[in-house]
């Protein structure tokens, strides 16, 4: 099972918020969120397989591939272990893909989704990066690749803190594990296309940095096509907006979860089958 950590409030009715990090990171990337969120919610932090303190998770075969469904079900296993029936999910970067996949596999477990630095579609530059990575992943040290990708995605001086945080966390991931995760890029295009075409109707807040040049344009489009979806752009921030501008990220995310939790409770009492846009 994944390594996880929980913070629980005395109020047994407090909603759960689950944080999901991206590839190469760990639950430690949420260090700027924990203090504020535990004032209001029960909080669950997970380290995805091969990351952080979940390095002990092994597959039946040393070189066995796994997919997004495998990784998503790892999270569901933790929810089951803790008897968490439903939660609000917050993800960053590739973690947003896992949350979106959760809404497909177990939609009844997802109260709302907050997508930080959401990956919705791969633009031409992103596709070129993925192609180059697959071409050179066996001849170029993986940390060179990861550092190069981090610089392309977060190029500005004010992104330096986020860039270094993710690079330093990635150094803790074994090379074989990195290769397994990189193979997931083959699944990305068809999976993202499916996500874009299907509207779950689950309340979703996209929190994007205004300088997230790789992924913000696609989010601007998707919110016009999906119901119960909203976009808030955070100034002076890049892809990893929870680190670049933690106060803005926290205040907007907390307000959204509180609002969705309140609306959901009201609709439950009224016997309505689905949350409507508010």
TrEMBL record:
GO MF annotation list: catalytic activity
InterPro entries: AB_hydrolase_1 (IPR000073), AB_hydrolase_fold (IPR029058), AB_hydrolase_sf (IPR050266), Epox_hydrolase-like (IPR000639)
Pfam families tied to this protein: Abhydrolase_6
Residues annotated as domain AB hydrolase-1: 17-250
Entry superkingdom: Bacteria
Protein name: 2-succinyl-6-hydroxy-2, 4-cyclohexadiene-1-carboxylate synthase
Organism: Chlorobium limicola
């Amino acid at each position: 099972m994944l390594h996880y950590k929980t913070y629980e409030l005395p109020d047994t009715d407090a909603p759960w918020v689950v944080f999901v990090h991206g590839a190469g990171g760990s639950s430690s990337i949420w260090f700027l969120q924990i203090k504020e969120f535990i004032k209001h919610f029960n909080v669950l932090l997970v380290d995805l397989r091969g990351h952080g303190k979940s390095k002990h998770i092994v597959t039946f075969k040393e070189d066995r591939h796994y997919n997004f469904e495998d990784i998503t079900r790892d999270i569901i296993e933790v929810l089951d272990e803790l008897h968490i029936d439903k939660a609000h999910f917050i993800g960053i970067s590739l973690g947003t893909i896992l949350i979106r996949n959760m809404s497909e596999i177990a939609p009844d477990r997802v109260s709302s989704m907050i997508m930080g630095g959401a990956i919705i579609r791969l633009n031409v530059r992103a596709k070129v990066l993925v192609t180059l990575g697959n071409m050179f992943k066996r001849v170029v040290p993986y940390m060179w690749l990861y550092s190069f990708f981090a610089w392309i995605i977060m190029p500005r001086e004010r992104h330096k803190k986020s860039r270094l945080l993710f690079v330093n966390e990635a150094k803790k991931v074994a090379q074989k594990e990195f290769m397994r995760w990189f193979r997931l890029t083959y699944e990305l295009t068809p999976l993202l296309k499916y996500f874009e075409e299907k509207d779950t109707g689950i309340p979703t807040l996209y929190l994007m940095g205004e300088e997230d040049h790789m992924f913000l344009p696609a989010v601007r489009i998707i919110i016009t096509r999906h119901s119960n979806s909203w976009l808030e752009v955070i100034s002076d921030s890049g892809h990893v907006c929870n680190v670049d501008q933690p106060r803005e990220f926290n205040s907007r995310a907390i307000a959204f979860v509180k609002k969705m939790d309140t609306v959901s409770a009201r609709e439950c009492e009224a016997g309505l089958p689905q949350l409507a846009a508010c």
